Amino acid sequence: MSTFNVPTREEVSANNQAIFDNLNKALGFVPNLFATYAHSETALENYLNFSNAKTSLSNKEKEAVNLVVSQVNECDYCLSAHTAIGKMNGFTDEQILELRAGGASFDQKLDALAKLAKNITENRGRADQNVVDNFLAVGYTKGNLIDTIVLVGDKTISNYINNTTQIPVDFPAVQPLETVSI
Q1: Are 18 and 50 within 8 A, CB to CB?
Q2: 157-180 b/e with 16+ CB inside 10 Å = b?
Q3: Would you give the distance in Å from CA 34 to the centre of its chain?
Q4: Which residues of 65-102 are buried (b: 16+ CB within 10 A; e: fewer)?
Q5: Tens of pLDDT along the chain (182 residues)?
Q6: CA–CA gap between residue 115 and residue 106 (Å, rounded)
Q7: Alpha-carbon dihedral angle through residues 161, 164, 167, 169, given to the nearest 10 degrees
Q8: Is residue 57 within 8 Å of 151, Cβ to Cβ?
C-alpha cells in the first residue's frame, strides 16, 4: 500500500491548480501520476514541458519507446497509460505486447527502435554498438538516436516516480508480460 497520497486540486499550489485545470480540459481528468508530480511546486510543469517538447520521433515511435522502457522498468502505471495511448495511436493489442517485449516484427524500423530503447534502458545508457548500428542502418539518424535517449530519460522519470510512490493506476490494467504468450 502506498504511503503517498494523490493530491487533490485543493492540496496543490496555485500554479499546479492551473495545470490541473488544463489537464481536466484536455483529458477529462488529472491522471494520478501527474497529480503526484504536484507534490513539488515545480516538477509537474517542468515534466510536462519536457515531455511535450519537440522531437524527431513520431507519436507512434514515442509510444513504442514508452512501452519498452516502462516494461523494462516494471512500471505498471506507465504500462497501463501507454497501452491506452498506444491503442489511440493505432497499435493493436498484439503489437503492444510485442513492443513491451522489446521488438516489432510487424515493422522493421519500429523493431530497431524498440530493440534500441530496451538495450539502452537495460544497460543504463551503455547501448551495444550492434544495436545502435542496426538502428542507423534501417534509416534512423544520429538526431533520432539522441531524441530516443532523451525519451528513454523522460519515461524513466515517470517510471521511477510511480515505482517509488506506488500511487493507484487510473487507466485500464494490463497483464504482466510473463502471463501472455506472444
Answers
A1: no
A2: ebbebbeebebebebeebeeeeee
A3: 13
A4: bbbbbbbbbebbbbbbbbbebbeeeebeeebbbbbbbb
A5: 557 899 999 999 999 999 999 999 999 999 999 999 999 999 999 999 999 999 999 999 999 999 999 999 999 999 999 999 999 999 999 999 999 999 999 999 999 999 999 999 999 999 999 999 999 999 999 999 999 999 999 999 999 999 999 999 999 999 888 765 55
A6: 13
A7: 70
A8: yes
Q: Tell me the domains of the chain and their CATH numbers.
A: 9-51 (no CATH), 59-179 (1.20.1290.10)
Written as nine digits, the cell of 137 is 542502418
